[in-house]
Specification:
- The protein contains 9 helices and 10 strands.
- It has 245 residues and is α/β, with parallel strands linked by helices.
- The strands form 2 sheets. A 6-stranded mixed sheet has the order 6-7-8-3-9-10, sandwiched between helices. Strands 2-1-4-5 form a 4-stranded antiparallel sheet, with helices on one face.
- Helix 6 links the parallel strand 7 and strand 8.
- Helix 3 packs across helix 4.
- The chain is globular and about 55 Å long.
- The termini are far apart.
- The protein binds adenosine-5'-triphosphate (ATP) and magnesium ion (MG).
- The site of magnesium ion has 4 residues, from helix 1.
Length: 245
Amino acid sequence: MALLEVKNIHKSFGAGEVLKGIDLTVEKGDVVSILGASGSGKTTLLRCINFLEKADEGQLLFNGKDYHLLGISKADISAIRRNTGFVFQNYCLFANKTVLQNVTLGLTSARHVPAAEAREKAMDVLTKVGMQDHVDKYPSQLSGGQQQRVAIARALATDPSIIYFDEPTSALDPQLTAEVLEVMRKLADEGMTMIVVTHEIGFAREVSSKVVFMADGVIVEEGKPEEFFVNPKEEKTREFLRLTE
Ligand SMILES: Nc1ncnc2c1ncn2[C@@H]1O[C@H](COP(=O)(O)OP(=O)(O)OP(=O)(O)O)[C@@H](O)[C@H]1O
Ligand SMILES: [Mg+2]
């Protein structure tokens, strides 16, 4: 059974329909890359799946349970969120908290994990992302790549069954992008389930188990990277890939 299944998501802002019936299946251990031009609805899709945005219609199957996106209860939303992580383009760290505090906060406050245990877990995940030597610094004292690695550590700290990434490297220069992609590649190798909205074609090609291409609120084409990149079926996909070359 799939870890996550999304069926028929619709979302409009005013008169404009941004998601026009999206279906997506994610198996445990999958790394799903979502590609698509600016404005195609990628961020809106991730936000709807994680209830940062309210969908107008659609169903979500998560960990064997079935939910309606419209009218889902607050209790169900928090139950799902306890098992998901979200990494944003602009890191979204607390500026007035240290690296360590940024990671422990979600454990001590939301989940009532004892401080010592939270600290141990935080050190563990910060080591995993190579930030163990910076735990007492504040976000402003870090590079963008370091901040993003802290954000990834924060997502990992709660042992989620899936992490959503929304263009995690698009604010970074190539050197820092490489650092962050390296961490994500390691997570993928360890079997972490991830959905990654990205413009990094190399990452999508080498790391993902499935590539999804969106345009104008629909999924135009999806497939394994070796098929998707080598032998795209749709003219829209070919055109998109030509533009990214
Ligand atoms: N809160 C909002 N209110 C009104 N329109 C919105 C809102 N959020 C997104 N949109 C519109 O929905 C469409 C899809 O936006 P979305 O951010 O999902 O695209 P995207 O694929 O993530 O683009 P990008 O690659 O630039 O991040 C765009 O036309 C955008 O202007
Ligand atoms: Mg976006």
